[in-house]
Automatic annotation (TrEMBL):
Domain N-acetyltransferase: 51-238
EC number per UniProt: 2.3.1.257
UniProt xrefs under CDD domains: NAT_SF
Catalytic activity: N-terminal L-seryl-[histone H2A] + acetyl-CoA = N-terminal N(alpha)-acetyl-L-seryl-[histone H2A] + CoA + H(+); N-terminal L-seryl-[histone H4] + acetyl-CoA = N-terminal N(alpha)-acetyl-L-seryl-[histone H4] + CoA + H(+)
GO cellular component terms attached to this protein's record: cytoplasm; nucleus
Source organism of the structure: Colletotrichum scovillei
Descriptive protein name: N-alpha-acetyltransferase 40
Localization terms from the record: Cytoplasm; Nucleus
PANTHER family listed in its UniProt record: N-ALPHA-ACETYLTRANSFERASE 40
Amino acid sequence: MAPPRKRRRAPTNPIEAANRKSDADFIRDHLQPSPEWTNWTHPKSGTSYTLSIKSPAQLAQSELKACFDLIDYTSGADYRASKDGWRPAHKMREMKSDGLRYILVKKSGSPSPDAATAGKDESEVCGNAAEDKICGFTSLMPTFEEGEAVVYCYEIHLLEELRGTGVGRTLMDYLVKVAESIPIIEKVMLTCFIANADARAFYEKLGFEIDALSPVERKLRFGKVFVPDYVIMSKRVRDKRKGEGKEVLDEAGAVNEEA
């Protein structure tokens, strides 16, 4: 019989440590961006945008609402058509979760006059005309998912004016950078509605694949069939660790020493 695995308290859980950092320290240690990373120029219109990182506690109420409205604007139909439906209170609670970081894409100036859908135009979605407009964002969290250490992409949403410009890839590249900066993390992971074919194609172009954790169609009792309305996708950022004697951090921050 093999000896039982020993457990000892790790001096630091890298994921907990990352999530406790201030936004400035998180940027320095995990994004390691170029000095000009906060500025981005639209390749077609020449419009200037700014990028910033904020934890939920640092978001102004107007910024949080603008992000919430952007989710509804771009994905509300998919949520409403899904099994769980659109649950605004639940979504807002999720958006305030400890450990989340938002990367905001803002622009100054007047809203585009030709963008309107579902009864809203960009000015209503992005925010107040007197302040910078949030025209896109992603939110991420280093966390454990079914025992795997991952960077989870909670949201990524862009207004039409930003789609196909490369800024979506830029945001996703930052998630990969965060994952690569935390040694125990092997994947970036996300959830995508099956109905959102464009989003899935975008993720696949970036190297994401269906993850083993993704739900699959299965037969239930009395002839019913469960058909999932979303997939879980992931992109590996480093090879799985192999070999004996490795140390693996668990979610409680303890170390499992494998013989």
